[in-house]
Amino acid sequence: MSTPDVVVVTPTRNRPELLWRAVASAAAQRDVTIQHIIVGDNCPVLADDGFAARLTQAFPHVTVINATPRSHPRVQHDYQWARVARLRNLGAAATDIDLIAHLDDDNTWDTGHLSSLVAALEAVPTAEMAHGWRRLLNDDGSPFYIPEGVDPWNDDEKVGAKSYALLVDAGVVVPGSNVLRDRVHFNGVLLGRVDTNELMVRRRLFERIPFPEEFSRWKQKIGLGDDALLNYLLLKNNVEVVCTEQVTVNYFMGGKSNQETYAPLAPVVR
């Protein structure tokens, strides 16, 4: 019996050790066959033919795309989340595999992550997206516990306190646990908490609602991320979403999906 095909997309820039860890995590997935698209954000590490060769030799299912200003001018954008979204979409569009998952270069998966998402979609053929839950970890792998009354993804103290209370009411945050039981909405109220690393979409959904690549000045001012805006679009368009209710994502705190990594740098034209 053949195993399901899944394409995994990982944007990256200049974090070779973390990238290698993420790729190894994807390669260890059980009961699926993956193609892993590594999309560099004008990445000098990926421009190093020696590193790229070692990566693809160790992981033959990996394809490397390094999006430079010359090779992929459309990807370039001063707002980091627009850049990340364009990199994700570029990677997803590089194949015609039906099932699409995303893994940031600073996170990892349990070995049953992808197969659990495949099973969830197979169980509900009308669903177009499946997601799991994540455990929050410090850089050393120890549990990260969200402080009471704090939303780590919101820099405004008052707004963060209100957000924390809503997340507790919704069951996303359980005090004393490092697990986020993410969901798109709670009683119709947008939470926008399904993280990119947790989800798998069918290609028909990607083609209809890709990661949003355009952000208004207001959205940029409040720092709206690509996955948060995607959550909004999923709710707005009544997309059927299923949850595995399994904790299969290791989410390392502090990277903010590579905020420093994706900060605009002096262009290197290759």
SSE inventory with pairings:
Elements: E1 5-12, H1 16-27, E2 33-41, H2 44-47, H3 49-58, E3 62-67, H4 80-92, E4 99-102, E5 108-109, H5 113-123, E6 129-137, H6 157-169, E7 179-180, E8 185-186, E9 189-190, E10 199-202, H7 203-208, H8 217-221, H9 226-236, E11 241-252
Parallel strand pairs: 1-2, 1-4, 2-3, 6-11
Antiparallel strand pairs: 4-10, 5-11, 6-7, 6-10, 8-9
Protein model, in words:
The chain has 270 residues and is an alpha/beta fold. It has a single domain, classed as Spore Coat Polysaccharide Biosynthesis Protein SpsA, Chain A, CATH 3.90.550. It is 31% helix and 22% strand. It contains 9 helices and 11 strands. The strands form 2 sheets. Strands 1, 2, 3, 4, 5, 6, 7, 10 and 11 form a 9-stranded mixed beta sheet that branches. Strands 8-9 form a two-stranded antiparallel sheet. Strand 1, helix 1 and strand 2 form a beta-alpha-beta unit. The chain is globular and about 50 Å long. The N and C termini lie far apart (44 Å). 40% of the residues are buried.
